[in-house]
Amino acid sequence: MLISHISDIHLGYAQFNLQEREEDLYEVFGEAVEKSISEHVKAIILAGDIFHNPKPNGAAIIRLARELKKLKEKSIPVFFVLGEHDISRSNDVPLPYLFHNLGLARRLKSDSPVQIDNLLIYGFNKERRSNIDNGLIRPFRKLESIMKNDIQKHAVKNHWLKKIIVLHQGLYDFNKFAGEIFSNDLPAGFDYYAMGHYHDHIEKRFPALNEGLVAYPGSIDLGHNETISDVEKGFLLVDLSEVSANVNTHWIKLEKRRHQFEYPIEYPDLTDKLGSIVQESAQYSKKPVIDLKISGTDIDPKILSRQLLQLEASFLYYNWSILDENSATGFSYDNTGDFDMDKEMSSLILKSLHSEPLTRLSLDLINMFHDQDDSHDSKNIDKDKNNHIANYVWKFFENNKSTYQTLGKSKIDGKGA
Ligand SMILES: [Mn+2]
Hints:
Elements: E1 2-6, H1 19-38, E2 43-47, H2 58-73, E3 78-81, H3 97-101, E4 106-107, E5 114-116, E6 119-123, H4 132-156, E7 162-168, E8 192-196, E9 202-206, E10 212-216, E11 234-239, E12 248-253, E13 260-266, H5 270-281, E14 289-295, H6 301-307, E15 317-323, H7 341-353, H8 356-375, H9 383-412
Parallel strand pairs: 1-2, 2-3, 3-4, 6-7, 7-8, 8-10, 13-14, 14-15
Antiparallel strand pairs: 1-11, 5-6, 9-10, 11-12
Helix pairs in contact: 1-2, 7-8, 8-9
The structure holds manganese (II) ion (MN).
Residues 8, 49, 83, 85, 197 line the site of manganese (II) ion.
């Protein structure tokens, strides 16, 4: 038995504020639905961030309805949880519940699973960092104990059930900054953890979860907070056939996506390179998106921007930046090695601030703002932590006041530092 696991669809989002990009998302989502149908999936799971906005535009609502109707006609049920983008800051009823009420999709619940054939599906809506303990961790522990009892019951009846849990949360295990819970927090006893939230495709089995597979299919297209790059996007076909003990996945690439890529150019080669880029662009059915990284010395941005105008006819959108060869801006990392976000961040900050204490302060501030950004609600802000950081900033300023003051003065005098 196959099911589809699709996440971070963000219907209604228009990258670069372009209507073509909004339309791209509808088309790519349609492709995911189409491919799911042709693979004869038994169900489709949408793991949150269905819409980009809690109050989505009409086109997004209509396009989702159209796909859900198509699936209904094929008798393929759709189950969903909400992501933070689906949840309004006011306590309004989330719009995706409309489709639940119309019988076009079903919202998943944490206490009463949905059963199709020999599959049980549980789901939790997104919980903000400020409510993780009450909203997730405690219910997880409760669920674990209920499931233990159920397993004993079903074992007596000689039933073999597969179990899935759908969540829209970031795991610290994969990203220390965007994480909200640890893999250890997840309830054990599930065969498959259908995740949403991270926009990259990630899969990992955890021994503490009895080799249960934790999987993010990633977003279906490049979206907000993602840079122009030549990445692949897709969704997961999850194989839950009874014969194999472990759940297996096939990641399905979405091919109707608009091509996006970065392109480095040495300024002296500009004319030649632009010619070949324009030629290359013709092979794509949709005008691609390009990010030009131009390196060289004595580049006049005004002249350059005029030279780049010829890209307008062949590209939907282009972005350009001049790489300064003298400073160490820009970096790349090797995805295959061990990547430590903390280390990378602090070394980049240290490089520009040249101060260890300031680097530590910056990291604390980044963490603090990150937390706040996520809570959307001033009453949820950890006041103790804020006071602590405010005191730290103030103390640091007091101790180093003189240096800042001289620095400021010399700048005003026009002598420079
Ligand atoms: Mn998302």
